[in-house]
TrEMBL record:
Residues 20-301 form the NADP-dependent oxidoreductase domain. Pfam families: Aldo_ket_red. It comes from the Eukaryota. The active site is at residue 56. Transmembrane segments: none annotated. Substrate binds at residue 118. This is NADP-dependent oxidoreductase domain-containing protein. The record marks 85 as: Lowers pKa of active site Tyr. InterPro entries: AKR, AKR1C, Aldo/ket_reductase_CS, NAD(P)_OxRdtase_dom_sf, NADP_OxRdtase_dom. Belongs to the aldo/keto reductase family. GO terms for molecular function: oxidoreductase activity.
Length: 324
């Protein structure tokens, strides 16, 4: 999978996805208005791929930022590639379209460029996005993901979304969709945690063999939210190999980690709320890592998952017990 001169990859449905996306996940500590401001900055800097999700609770702010940049003539709607995600409490097929419509309403869009199943880990439907029982344990739902996928296909046929894909799926779950009788559209992408400490080599090879784009989140390590991330895990951007390469190329360790993904044909998401970092993260196209440096970064892999979704371990569709 090669990026074209516009730094896009053609997906298996003919639509193009930009190589670098701007992430809009906001931990509670960061006010949502900061996300709005940062999204505007990202568009000014050159980002055209904005990665959002219903569960982030920032779609209204992101939508406002995009509309402001359309109104001031910076971009047209068709220049922006927006990814939305179907949250796990809406995986039941009869809820898919109304969930998508909620996002469209928040964003004030007629369509979303890419809509993906956020996780294969279905939760009890309802207004509570993290439904828990009396013991504080998440309440799971058992949903046939093939039926969820058919509802996603119907959203594409209705023109509400241009491309459909998945996130956090393992090989077995991808194959379940790919081998589904009467499959109309293949997933265009699988968005997963992917960085030099978890390089997803096997899953990447599998996805490439099926013409599915791998999209990397937590590509710079992780936001280290104490609720999900073990605080004793090493900080990726402090890795000595990445830092030595950063010196060699006169770039930041973050840019080296991002460039590594692009050279593997992986679409990479980066998130920041400061103008300097947002500007820096977009300078990923003007240098190239040598083959031996790519191998050096490959060798950092330790299958370290910053967000193992601990609270889902008992879920029948828990994806991370498989080899890949």
């Amino acid at each position: 999978m090669e990026f074209d001169k516009d730094h896009c990859i053609k997906m298996n449905d003919g639509n193009k996805i930009p190589a670098v996306g701007f992430g809009t996940y906001s931990p509670d500590a960061v006010q949502k208005s900061k996300c709005e401001e940062a999204t505007k900055v990202a568009i000014e800097v050159g980002f055209r791929h904005i990665d959002g999700a219903f569960v982030y609770g920032t779609e209204e702010e992101v939508g406002r930022a995009i509309h402001e940049k359309i109104e001031d003539g910076t971009v047209k709607r068709e220049d922006i590639f927006y990814t939305g995600k179907l949250w796990s409490t809406f995986n039941a097929p009869e809820m898919v379209q109304s969930a998508l419509e909620k996002s469209l309403k928040s964003l004030q869009f007629d369509y979303i460029d890419l809509y993906i199943i956020h996780t294969p880990l279905s939760l009890k439907p309802g207004d509570d996005l993290y439904p828990v029982d009396g013991n504080g344990k998440l309440i799971f739902d058992n949903v046939d993901l093939c039926a969820t996928w058919e509802a996603m296909e119907a959203c594409k046929d209705a023109g509400l979304v241009k491309s459909i894909g998945v996130s956090n799926f393992n090989r077995r779950q991808l194959e379940m969709i790919l081998n589904k009788p009467g499959l109309k559209y293949k997933p265009v992408c699988n968005q997963v945690e992917c960085h030099p400490y978890l390089n997803q080599r096997k899953l990447l090879e599998f996805c490439k063999s099926k013409n599915i784009v791998l999209v990397a989140f937590s590509a710079l390590g992780s936001h280290r939210d104490a609720r999900w991330v073990d605080q004793s895990t090493p900080l990726l951007l402090e890795d000595p190999v990445l830092n030595a390469l950063a010196k060699k190329y006169n770039r930041s360790p973050a840019l080296v980690a991002m460039r590594y993904q692009l050279q593997r044909g992986v679409v990479v998401l980066a998130k920041s709320f400061t103008r300097k970092h947002i500007e820096d993260n977009f300078k990923v196209f003007d240098f190239q890592l040598a083959e031996e440096d790519m191998k050096a970064i490959d060798s950092l892999n330790q299958n370290l998952r910053y967000d193992p979704c601990q609270e889902f371990l008992d879920h029948p569709e828990y994806p991370f017990d498989d080899d890949y």
